[in-house]
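Q: what does this look like with calcium ion bound?
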Amino acid sequence: MRVLVVEDESDLRRLLTEILEEEGYAVDSAADGEDGLAKARAWTYDAIVLDLMLPKIDGWDVLETLRETHRTPVLILSARDALSDRVLGLDIGADDYLVKPFERLELLARLRALIRRAAGQPQTSIEIQGFTVDLSDRCVRLGDEAINLTAREYALLEYLALHRGKVVSRTELYDHLFDETDSSLSNLLDVHVSNLRKKLSPDLIETRRGQGYVICE
Ligand code: CA
């Protein structure tokens, strides 16, 4: 999953990026509203963490403009804790609102919920061919046994699981699993797929030549 962080305070921007990358998200960031809006329109993010008090274009305007064309899930992360700010934020199209200072675990849980909801996935785990993809713990189990996956391997599996039954193109996977600074060697995706097949099952992820990958239900 790929997330955009729009935050002008550089320490917090770095911290957010670090927290999200540790969880296996691909993360892009923007230091002002103009850059944030440009990126939000240029890429298909799975979620956006948006500050409100931003240089150039403030967060409210970023959100309002983005909502004319995009339904990307947006979580406002702001020091503004007044009821009127929270209500306005949600009313102009934010999907959630978290007040700074925030708890890391809460931010991550809210993001997971936004991403689940956007994918039309009400449950917090997905059963596929005997495996359980646990979206809350971000892990995969076979019975009671957790299978050791890297953050990227998990992210790839999660994306395919959330879109199970649908062929996902390589381009879409690159867009959602890697950030703008990743030097995406063309075979990287194949390496992750191959590792997942070794660790899970050779048949779980099917290759559709010239189209992409699919996990069948
Ligand atoms: Ca700010």
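The CA atoms of residues 26 and 128 lie 24 Å apart. The pocket of calcium ion is lined by residues 8-9, 51, 53-54 (CB under 6 Å).
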